[in-house]
C-alpha cells in the first residue's frame, strides 16, 4: 500500500512538472504561427500594392493632396492641357461686387470658354467609352458562341466517358467472375486509357474551338500599338493626356507606356508577341489569317474593362476642375 501511494505521488509530481513544459511549448508554437502569418500578410500586402517595377496597380492621375496654384494637381494639369489657365485663374480670383447680382462680361466670357472646353473633353471620354462598350458587346457575343460549343462538346465527352466506363466495367466484372483475370485486366487498362484520353481532350477544348479574327480593329489597337496616332491627335485633349507623363511621378513614361507595363504585370500581357497583340486588337495585317480562342477573347475583355477604368480617370480630373471654377 505504501509503495502504491508513493508511486501515485511520483506520477502526480511528474504530471505537474510536464504541464508547464506543454504550456510553454504551446505558447512557442502559437508565437511561431503568429510570426509566420504576419510575414505572409506583409509579403502579400507588399505584392498587391503598387510596385514601381511591377506596375501591379497604377493611377494615371496625380495625387489629389498636392496643390498647385490653389488647385488640386489633377485639376491644374487639366487646366494646362485645355489651355485655359488664365481663365481659370481669373474665375478663381474675381469676386462679384457686393450687393450686385450682375456678372461682368469678362467673367461670363471666361466661364463660357472654360465650360466649352471642359464639355468638349468630356465628350471625348464619352465617345471612347462608348467605343469600348461596343467592343465589349462584340467580344461577349464571340465568347458566348465559343463557350457554348465548348460546353456542348464537354457534355458529349463526359457522357461518352461514363458510358464506356459502365460498359467496360461490366465486361471486366464478368470476366473476373468467370476466372478470365487477364482479360479483365486488359479491359480495366482500356477503360482507364480511354478516360485519360477524354480528360486530356477536355483540357484542350478552350483552344480547340476558335474562330477567325475579323476586322475592324477594336479600341485596344490605339494602346497596344505605341506607334498608332489617330487622325485627330492634334485636337484631342484625351490623346494629349494619354501621351503625357503623370505630374509628380518618378516614372518617366507616358501614360500609354505605363498602361502597357501595367497590363504586362497585371494581366500577363507579352508586349513582344506582336501576333498575339494583333489578335487582341482584332487587327490582322493584310492577307494574314489569325484565329482567336476563348483565352484570347477573355483576355481582350479584361483589357477593355481595365482600359475603360483608366480612361475615366480623365473624366474625374475634368470634374475636379469644373468643381474648382464653379465654387467661385
Question: What is the fold's blueprint, element by element?
Answer:
Layout: H1 2-48, E1 67-68, E2 71-72, H2 73-81, H3 85-93, H4 105-177, H5 181-208, E3 210-212, H6 221-224, H7 237-242, H8 255-266, H9 274-281, E4 291-293, H10 294-326
Antiparallel strand pairs: 1-2, 3-4
Structure report:
This protein is mainly alpha-helical. It has a domain at 221-313. Helices cover 70% and strands 3% of the residues. The strands form 2 sheets. A two-stranded antiparallel ribbon has the order 1-2. The protein has a two-stranded antiparallel sheet with strand order 3-4. A hairpin with a 2-residue loop joins strand 1 (67-68) and strand 2. Helix 2 crosses helix 10 and helix 4 runs antiparallel to helix 10 (294-326). The longest helix is centred in the middle third of the chain and has 73 residues, at 105-177. Mean pLDDT is 79; it is low at 1-26 and 33-52.
> What do the pLDDT scores average to?
79
> Which value, in Å, is the CA radius of gyration?
34 Å
Shape: elongated
Estimate percent helicity.
55-70%
What series of H and E elements makes up the topology?
HEEHHHHEHHHHEH
**Low-confidence runs of at least 5 consecutive residues:** 1-26, 33-52
Q: What share of residues are in beta strands?
A: under 5%
Could you give the distance between the termini? 100 Å
Number of strands: 4
Strand order of the largest sheet: 1-2
